[in-house]
Structures are given as structure tokens and as C-alpha cells.
Amino acid sequence: MSEQPEVAGRFQQSLPAAALLALGLWVGYTSFNTEDPQPYLFPQLISVALVLLSGMALFRAFKGTNRTGAGVPLDQLGRIAPAIGLMLVCVFVMLPELGFYSGSALGFFILFSLYDPASHKSPAVWLKRLVITAGFMTLIYVVFALGLQVQTPRGLFI
Q1: Which residue of 17, 68, 87, 142 is most buried, as measured by CB atoms within 10 A?
Q2: How far apart are CA 109 and CA 132, in angstroms?
């Protein structure tokens, strides 16, 4: 006897697609509703892609043609909840107050420290986390500021 994998219901599949569609519409509204659209090219492209893809996912969920898994178990949701909370704090508090690069560096460092299985008592491990965070933020700066020439939010720090 073979076991059939559980498949999430239409409602359970529709919720994330609807949330992403709302996010894409919000990003699209804010990025297209500006006086100077040139600095908002990257968010405009992302919002269009997000609206199209999440709209397709929502349509498939309503039709019942998605064959996704049964969803996220509660124990796994408990493990990722701190990361989701940190991302929300980063987007709505740290980025506007500290600036994009400082807020992102702090958020990345905290997230990395939360999920890094290495000891939290070793100074060498903390140094490794700082070096990786600095390297990651350098890459982000090169991609966004130099490559895509995106204007990032300014705050207390850069």
C-alpha cells in the first residue's frame, strides 16, 4: 500500500498567494505613484513580477490545480517565527531609522547569530559572524548601489 502525500486545501494554498499579491500591489502602488520614476525601476520590476506570479498562484489555488504539500507544521513554524518577526522589525523599524545598509547589516547579523549552530561563547565564532556580515553587506552594496543604482532608504546611519 503506497502512501499518498497530503496536499494542502484550496483555502490553505490561497492565503500565501493572496498575501503575496497584496504585497506586490502595495509595492507597485508605492513605486509607480512617484514624481520621479527613475529611482524606482527595480521595485517596479519586482512588483510586476510579484503581482503576475502571485496572481497565477492564486488562480491555480482557486481552481484546485496546485499540488503543494500540506503546509508548514506548527513546530517548524515555531522555528521560523523569530526570523519572520525580525524581518518585520527590520523593514518597518530598523531600515527607516538606521538606513538600508546599517539596518540590513544589523538584521543579517542577528538572524545569522540566531540560526548559526556554532557556539555563542567563542569570540572566534563572533568574529566569523562579523566578517561574513561585512562581506555580505559589501556584496549587497555592490549589487544595489553600484550595479543597479538603486536609491536606498537613508536613516541615522547609511
Answers
A1: 17
A2: 9
